[in-house]
Amino acid sequence: MTVISAAEYLDMEWYGVDRRGGLAVFCSAGAGNLSGFVLENQERADALIEYFQGAARITGSRLCLPKTGPAERVAREFSDRGLYYFDADDGTTPGVCSLHAYYTKHSEPRRPLRYAELPEDIREILSHNLMETEDFSLADVIRIGPARDRFPNREEPGSTEGEERAPCVR
């Protein structure tokens, strides 16, 4: 088991499960905080990336923010696979990245993929990636507390993972 050092990562694609069994992908762009379960085991993180990048498209998607070109393609590729897509770029200025430690929802699937639909080996890996978020469909911003080794001089808050509700453009 290889532990990921949050102090050294540049960009990380990681996956989480909400309390209702919904699935989301988070792209950190080197700015978004990583959940502790992401840093625990690089092999698990890599296995999830491999699985979801090879997953079939099962639905259509809705963009939550205006996107064109490669940014639209990436958002749709994730959500067409049934995943909610959150990014450290807040999407406020099309074509310009405005990176933050929190994640903003960029797209959502028309028919979300559910944890229970996944193969047993992927469910086992994702059982380590359970989040406090009740329902990704209702969260447009998700905050993750900083990992200790990324900010060694900062005290880790008790529980900063949470969500803020803002209207998603449909």
Offer a concise description of the structure.
The chain contains 4 helices and 7 strands. With 170 residues, it is α+β, with helices and mostly antiparallel strands.
Describe this entry's structure for a reader.
The chain is of the alpha+beta class and 170 residues long. It has one domain. The protein has helices at 36-40, 42-54, 69-79, 120-126, and strands at 13-17, 23-27, 61-63, 84-89, 99-109, 141-143, 162-164. Strands 1, 2, 3, 4, 5, 6 and 7 form a 7-stranded mixed β-sheet that branches. The N and C termini lie far apart (41 Å). The model is unreliable at 148-170 (pLDDT under 50).
Which helices and strands, and how do they pair?
Blueprint: E1 13-17, E2 23-27, H1 36-40, H2 42-54, E3 61-63, H3 69-79, E4 84-89, E5 99-109, H4 120-126, E6 141-143, E7 162-164
